[in-house]
Structures are given as C-alpha cells and as structure tokens.
C-alpha cells in the first residue's frame, strides 16, 4: 500500500525515481601500525594503495565524462588531483618508512600536502580542498565505505539527504537528479535555493525521509510537498508524463493596470547572470558576491574580485545590478573573517558586522566593485547585508561614497531595521528586504532547521507586518524597496508584497515568468486588498489559504 510522507514544498514539479541517499562523511582511519614482520607486508600495502588510487581516478574521470556543466568541471579537477604522483609517493613512503596502514598513510600524506598548499594563496590554496576530497575517496576505496559527495549511480535518481552543504551542490548534476528530498533544511536553506534555481522539484523537512531505502521508487510532488512511497505504476507514469506549463516573461513587470514592479534576478556568478538574461530579467536585484569568497581560505585579491564582478556586470550593460557586499558568517562561514567558536553564529558577527573587525575587507571589496563598475556599463547599486541600526546604515553609505559609489542601500533582514526603517532610509538610498533572514529573526527559527519549517515561512503575518513597516518608512523618505529573499519567487505571495508597498521583486530567474503572469492579472488596488486580507489572518497557513482563495480566478487558469 502506498504511504505518503509530507514536508515543506520548496521547488515545484513532479518526478518519479529511485532513491539514492547521500553518504555519511568518511571516518578518519585509526593510527594503526602495519604488520611488517616480513617485507611482503609493505609491498602488499603499497600495491593496495596503488590499486585504490587508480580505481578512484578512473571512476572520477568516467563520472566527469558523464556529467554536465559545473559538476563535470569539478569532477575532472578532482580526477586530475587523484592522478597527481606527489600524494601517492608520500603515502607510499609513509607505508614503507613509518609502517602506516595504506589508509592512514594516504590520510596523513594528504593532510600534509593540504597544509603546504594552504598558505600559498589562490589558486594553489584552493587545491587543498580537492586534496582532502581525493583523500576521502581513496580512504573510502581502501576501507570499503561509500565515497563522499553526491553519488553518481549512472542513472536518474531522487537524491535523499539530511541536508546539502554548499560544497555538495557543486557536483550535483541537474540532468541526473530528478528530485531532492531532505529530512532537515528549511524553505530558505541552501538546498531549497539551489533546487529552485535549477528547477529540480524539492521538498525539505520531510518527516520519515531518513527511513527511505536506497533503491526504492518514490513519486515526489515538489508543489504539494509529498513523497509517495510504494507508488502504483499509474502514479509513476502520471509523474513522469507531468510537464510544467512553460511561460515566458516579456521583460517588463507590471500589474494589470500598469503599476510598475521591477522583476529582477538573484545571481551569484556569470553563468547565473547569463541564465537571468535569457529569462529576460530586468536587471539583478541581488548579486551574492560571497560565492566568489566561499571555499577560500584567504581573501581573493582586488584584481580577482574585479574579474569576478565584471563577469556579472557585463551581462547587464545599461541595466541595474545590485551588488551585495560580503555576507560572511552563520550559514556562510569564511575562515578569514568568521570565528569558528561563536556560540550562536546566526546571532553573531555576520553580514555587515564583520566589517567592524575587518574594515579593510569591506574597503577592498568596495574598491573592486567601483573598479568593475567603471570598466562596465551596468548601472551598479551596492547594498550591505544585515544592517540593524541607523548608524550602520550611515557608515556603510559613507564607505561607499568614499569609493564614488553613490547608490548605497541597506538590506532589511533584522526586525530592528524594519521597525526603524524611517531612520535607516534617511541614509540608505534604497532598501532590499531579505525575507529569508527577516523571517528567521522575526520567528526566532533557524532557517536551516527542518523541525521549524512551519515557522520559517514569509507568509507569517508577523513577517508581512515587518515588510509593511519597512515600506512605510522607506516611502516616507522617497526610497524604493525591493524584496530579494525567497518570498519574491512565490507567485502567490508576490501580489501581497506589492500591495504592502514593495517596488521590485528579485528572484531565481526560473520564477520570473510565473510571478510576472500573476501580477499582470491583478490591479494594484487588488494587490492592496490581498495584503489586507493576508495581514488579517491569525497565522501563516490561514494567510496563504485566504490569499489563494481570493486569487483562485487568476491562479487556476495559470495552473498555479
Ligand atoms: C535573505 O536573507 O533573504 C537574503 C536574500 O540573503 P541570503 O539568503 O543570502 O542570506
Ligand atoms: Mg540574508
């Protein structure tokens, strides 16, 4: 009999496939001595080491050949690292001279190599991570445990994990992963953001996901938030043949009566910028620059940053690109600005707060943004993450002005800034509401915690109140305010946000067409009415249901 598991729907679409689970981290091998009572013990260990290294290298090369896009590049680099003789030679020496087991020898040799690479600065320091990845794969081969990272079983599959780390997602092949199901994670976790960006159906915080067995067939409905176990043939067939209605955005966001709502894209790199252009985004409402810093042990140089930023700016000549300065800390830790021993990282030194101890990092980034802006013809706006006080807004605007960046804004992600919006926007020239963090802080619910997924939604009337307060304060100063959190990609919530006073919405490019379609069917007055209806509800579920009911005539024909 079929059983349905439920969770928080984060990326729409239906898919059927077999379950493949994420492997557990490879355990560190014990420091055990090799039995070298006769010489053949060391020879045998060395030959096992060689065989394991070759097997890993061949498998990675085969996976790279099958994969597409970034996943193929990452796998090819790791395969080349596995073929590098430096690691193999040192591991062999440790077996022979220190009588280490092959798995311990490769563990120690890789750690020593990574420690040599780390201080050398990019791009060599970047290779330390690849060395550790190769280490884990060879140790897994030698000890018979599953290799790390997103599996590549050679056929399409439903990926089941506790949650995905940003590093895992680099090897996630969107052609192979038909759906993602996690037991943890919230609607604004990295898994959710990535799945929406790639258009992969996904559900997070699924109760019972840990019990899903390797190889069982499931049907995932990313819109309804259900995972059907033991489905009938008809269920599987229906999911396989379900095609999403494909719409196009014409590049000009507006309501039915012509009230302008800029529809922008969230991007993190030049590839995403090109996808945003292809989806006719009017510009970029959130350029997450920390993706150029993440995974690095040292700060990228100004020149490297200029190159990275120009890659995005060049795709949007003559159009607006809102560059967000570094948002390190909490869910995006960086070794050179974040402490690793904070008791509550989400409430710690993150976002703009890192600039207090490291003003030079912000200064160099603003210099790089200014240089990139001067070299390209995009209309560059700059904003700071996690602004909480008027004083922070004032000093950020001053820091931007020192680099000739006159369009300096504040992200509103902390309830304090929403409530003091009138004062914050005395200085900041525009606002962008980060509803992912604003929801986390309004509801005191960790955005990564699946158990709190019901609280972690921007449909919470308390969050909508904060959006309204932000808009009122900003408008009293004549400043525009956008939303760039995941709420902007919710086509049902979009008219509510517009009714609350939001002037632009920035989202994953894939959501643009649906959001534009809904907005073009409702007048501005109706948006205000929908906002009033949502604010009157006692809780998030009631707000969502009430607005869906009110909008049924628009949503049904659009299949939303
Ligand atoms: C947000 O918090 O809503 C936001 C857009 O920033 P991030 O998700 O990168 O923290
Ligand atoms: Mg944020």
TrEMBL record:
InterPro entries associated with the record: PEP-util_enz_mobile_dom (IPR008279), PEP-utilizing_PTS_enzyme (IPR050499), PEP_util_AS (IPR018274), PEP_util_C (IPR000121), Phosphohistidine_dom_sf (IPR036637), PTS_EI (IPR024692), PTS_EI-like (IPR006318), PTS_EIN (IPR008731)
SUPFAM superfamilies registered for this protein in UniProt: Enzyme I of the PEP:sugar phosphotransferase system HPr-binding (sub)domain, Phosphoenolpyruvate/pyruvate domain, Phosphohistidine domain
One BP annotation, GO: phosphoenolpyruvate-dependent sugar phosphotransferase system
One Pfam family linked to the record: PEP-utilisers_N
Catalytic activity: L-histidyl-[protein] + phosphoenolpyruvate = N(pros)-phospho-L-histidyl-[protein] + pyruvate
Keywords per UniProt: Cytoplasm, Kinase, Magnesium, Metal-binding, Phosphotransferase system, Sugar transport, Transferase, Transport
Required cofactor(s): Mg(2+)
GO cellular component, one term: cytoplasm
Residues annotated as binding phosphoenolpyruvate: 288, 324, 436-437, 447
Subcellular location: Cytoplasm
PEP-utilising enzyme C-terminal domain sequence ranges: 253-521
Transmembrane segments: none
Domain Phosphotransferase system enzyme I N-terminal: 6-124
Domain PEP-utilising enzyme mobile stretches: 157-225
Active site (catalytic residues): 190 (tele-phosphohistidine intermediate), 484 (proton donor)
EC number: 2.7.3.9
GO molecular function: kinase activity; metal ion binding; phosphoenolpyruvate-protein phosphotransferase activity
Role: General (non sugar-specific) component of the phosphoenolpyruvate-dependent sugar phosphotransferase system (sugar PTS). This major carbohydrate active-transport system catalyzes the phosphorylation of incoming sugar substrates concomitantly with their translocation across the cell membrane. Enzyme I transfers the phosphoryl group from phosphoenolpyruvate (PEP) to the phosphoryl carrier protein (HPr).
PANTHER family per UniProt: PHOSPHOENOLPYRUVATE-PROTEIN PHOSPHOTRANSFERASE
The family this protein is said to belong to: Belongs to the PEP-utilizing enzyme family.
Name of the molecule in the record: Phosphoenolpyruvate-protein phosphotransferase
């Amino acid at each position: 009999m079929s059983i349905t598991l439920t969770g928080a729907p984060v990326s729409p679409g239906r898919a059927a496939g077999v379950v493949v689970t994420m492997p557990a981290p490879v355990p560190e091998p014990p420091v055990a001595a090799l039995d070298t009572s006769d010489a053949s013990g060391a020879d045998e260990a060395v030959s096992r080491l060689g065989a394991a290294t070759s097997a890993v290298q061949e498998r990675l090369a085969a996976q790279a050949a099958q994969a597409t896009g970034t996943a193929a590049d990452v796998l090819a680099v790791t395969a080349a690292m596995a073929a590098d003789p430096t690691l193999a030679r040192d591991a062999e020496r440790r077996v022979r001279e220190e009588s280490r087991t092959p798995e311990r020898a490769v563990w120690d040799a890789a750690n020593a190599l990574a420690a040599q690479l780390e201080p050398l600065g990019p791009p060599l320091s970047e290779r330390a991570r690849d060395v550790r990845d190769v280490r884990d794969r060879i140790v897994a081969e030698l000890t018979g445990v599953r290799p790390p990272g997103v599996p590549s079983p050679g056929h399409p599959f439903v990926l089941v994990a506790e949650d995905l780390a940003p590093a895992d997602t680099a090897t996630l092949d969107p052609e192979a992963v038909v759906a993602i199901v996690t037991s943890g994670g919230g609607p604004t976790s990295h898994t959710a953001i990535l799945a929406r960006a790639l258009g992969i159906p996904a559900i997070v915080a699924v109760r019972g996901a840990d019990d899903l067995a390797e190889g069982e067939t499931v049907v995932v409905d990313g819109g309804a938030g259900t995972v059907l176990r033991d489905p009938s043939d008809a269920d599987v067939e229906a999911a396989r043949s379900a095609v999403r209605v494909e719409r196009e955005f014409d590049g000009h966001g507006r309501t039915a009566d012509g009230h302008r709502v800029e529809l922008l894209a969230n991007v993190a790199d030049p590839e995403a910028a090109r996808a945003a252009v292809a989806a006719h985004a009017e510009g970029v409402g959130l350029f997450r620059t920390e993706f150029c810093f993440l995974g690095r042990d040292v700060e990228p140089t100004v020149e490297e940053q200029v190159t990275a930023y120009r890659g995005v700016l060049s795709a949007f000549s003559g159009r607006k690109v809102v560059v967000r300065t570094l948002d390190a800390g909490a869910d995006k830790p960086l070794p050179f600005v974040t402490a690793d021993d904070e008791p509550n990282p989400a409430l710690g030194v993150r976002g703009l707060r890192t600039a207090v101890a490291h003003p030079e990092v912000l200064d160099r980034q603003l210099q790089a943004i200014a240089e990139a802006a001067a070299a390209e013809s995009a209309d560059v706006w700059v904003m700071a993450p996690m602004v909480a006080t008027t004083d922070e807004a004032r000093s950020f605007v001053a820091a931007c002005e020192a680099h000739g960046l006159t369009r300096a804004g504040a992200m509103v992600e902390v309830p304090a800034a929403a409530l003091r919006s009138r004062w914050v926007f005395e200085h900041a020239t525009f606002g962008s509401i980060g509803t992912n963090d604003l929801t986390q802080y309004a509801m005191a619910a960790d955005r990564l915690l699946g158990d709190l997924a019901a609280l972690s939604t921007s449909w919470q009337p308390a969050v909508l109140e904060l959006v309204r307060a932000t808009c009122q304060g900003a408008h009293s100063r004549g400043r525009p305010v956008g939303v760039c959190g995941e709420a902007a990609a919710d086509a049902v919530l979009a008219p509510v946000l517009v009714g609350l006073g939001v002037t632009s919405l920035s989202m994953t490019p894939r959501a643009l067409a649906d959001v534009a379609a809904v907005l073009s069917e409702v007048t501005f007055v109706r948006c205000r009415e929908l906002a009033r209806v949502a604010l009157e509800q006692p809780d998030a579920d009631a707000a969502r249901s009430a607005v869906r009911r009110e909008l049924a005539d628009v949503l049904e024909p659009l299949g939303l």
